[in-house]
Amino acid sequence: MSAPPASSSTPSDMSSTTTITIQARKGALSLREEALELWRYRYLIRVLMARELRVRYKNSLLGVAWSLVNTMIQVLVLTVAVGYILGSGPKNLSAYMLCAYLPWNFFQTSVLDASSSVVSQFGLLKKIYFPREIPVIAAVCSNLIHFAISLGVFVVYRWGVMTVLYGWPGPPPIQVLWLPALVVIQVLLALGVSFYVAAWNVFYEDVKFIVTSLMSFLFYLV
Fold first, then answer.
1. Against a cut of 0.90, is the pTM above it?
2. Which of 66, 144, 141 is nearest to 106 (CA)?
3. At what angle do helices 134-156 and 179-203 cross, to 10 degrees?
4. Closest Cα to residue 96, out of 158, 182, 166, 147?
């Protein structure tokens, strides 16, 4: 029996062929390799951030301004309770309260949102591969946007409203140049705690409730 003739390949056939090479991961990735992998998925982080912001303020008239409204109400309550009812603190106590509450609110909301971020993305995680840190990073970064807006409001309040009401003069001090470095440190702290909490919450969903109660306790302890 004669052998079947060999099939010939034209250049057009060869150009339409796609070769996929799959390389198995050997051991754990180094810190540099982890960072490079997250950088390759940076677009997905932006997509998850945008979706989280849209879902949170869907059908809302004020939108992202609600995060400022809640913050200002909390600062107002604390100012009235401490400054007027207890009668302690300076007359511009609200500025000090706002300055202290904004970083804490960013840290608290970042950890609480990130605690259930991986669980809420289980459907997507089962369909495609991407680093499991991405939902946590997206949750923290979306709260970072709120924090940046809140800092802008604080600047207007401190060097605008307070100057008009109490004659609190003077330009921002030179120490304000340390603000970007402090924000970076706080973001890293929020990410570190969020990674730990989100990992535990995958196995024990009681973790998010424990963290919520713990945050309320730490607010008054700090």
1. no
2. 144
3. 140
4. 158
